[in-house]
Design brief:
2 domains, 117 residues, rod-shaped, 75% helix
């Protein structure tokens, strides 16, 4: 207890109070450091998951409004379905024949990208 007129007791009381405060602050600091370590480990795990998703979903898989995509093989089948037979194509004039040739080239490129025949 502080005794009026005796400065030594005032100093002792202040030292005791500061020691208690420092101890409680150190305890709180260690708790916060533990929480920080947990949070940083969770953050690194989340970043790793995001990178894995980006590798799995090329072409804007993580965008808010991603563009609609279809497999290359499906696109090739769609284009092939509207192409006329080669016999009908030969009966046309040069312009439509050239357009069909170009579409067949695109179909071959799509099949190559899809890894098909």
């Amino acid at each position: 207890m502080a005794v009026p007129g005796i400065p030594e007791t005032n100093v002792q009381v202040l030292e005791k109070l500061t020691d208690e405060k420092v101890g409680s602050l150190q305890l709180k600091l260690s708790e916060v450091e533990g929480k920080l370590a947990d949070t940083s480990s969770k953050l690194s795990e989340a970043e790793k998951t995001i990178e894995d998703l980006r590798r799995q979903l090329p072409g804007g898989g993580l965008l808010k409004n991603p563009p609609k995509m279809i497999p290359a093989s499906e696109a090739a089948k769609m284009v092939e379905s509207v192409l006329p037979s080669p016999m009908v194509q030969r009966s046309w004039s040069l312009g439509p024949q050239r357009m069909c040739q170009e579409l067949r080239r695109v179909v071959q490129q799509l099949q190559h990208k899809a890894g098909g025949s």
